[in-house]
Amino acid sequence: MTPRRIIRDERKLYGRWHFEGTAIPIAALRADATARLDAFEETYRAAGLTDEEIEMALEFDFPDVRKAELHAQYVVATVACSCGEASYLTLSGFSEGEIDCSCGRLWRVCVELEPAGHDGQRSRTCPPTLTCSGIRQDQRSDCGTVPPGAGSGHSR
Description:
Layout: E1 6-7, E2 18-19, H1 26-34, H2 40-46, H3 51-59, E3 74-80, E4 86-92, E5 96-100, E6 106-110, E7 117-118, E8 121-122, E9 130-134
Antiparallel strand pairs: 1-2, 3-4, 5-6, 6-9, 7-8
C-alpha cells in the first residue's frame, strides 16, 4: 500500500498538517511520541496509519507557512522590585504593560517571541524581559535614587 501524503488544507483541521484522507494531525502524533506515551504506535495503527506513515510523521520537516507570532491571551506577572516590594500585573490581549511600584519605580514588562532552537537543539536561553523604565512616564531615570515625591505611590 502506498503511504498517504502529508498535506495542509486551510479548510480542514484549522490548516494543520495531516495525512490525506484522515483527521490525524502530524503534530499530535509527534507530541504523543515525544511524551513517550505507552503504545502510541498501536493507537495510530488502530486509527488506520501504517508503520511507514508513522515513521513519515516522525520525520516530517514542517515548512514555514506563516510568520511566527505571539498571541498573549492572558499573562499574570509578579514584579519583584529591587526595593523589596512586589507588585502584580495582568496582561490580557497585550504583550506589554507597565507597573508602578510603591517606591516610585516604573517597570515595563514585555512578552516576546524569539527563536530558541530547532529539532530539540537550544540556541540559548533568555531571562524574562523585565526592565525598569524610570520613575514616571514623563520623568525617566535609571531607577537609582528615587526623588522625593516621585512615582505614583501605589501598586496595581
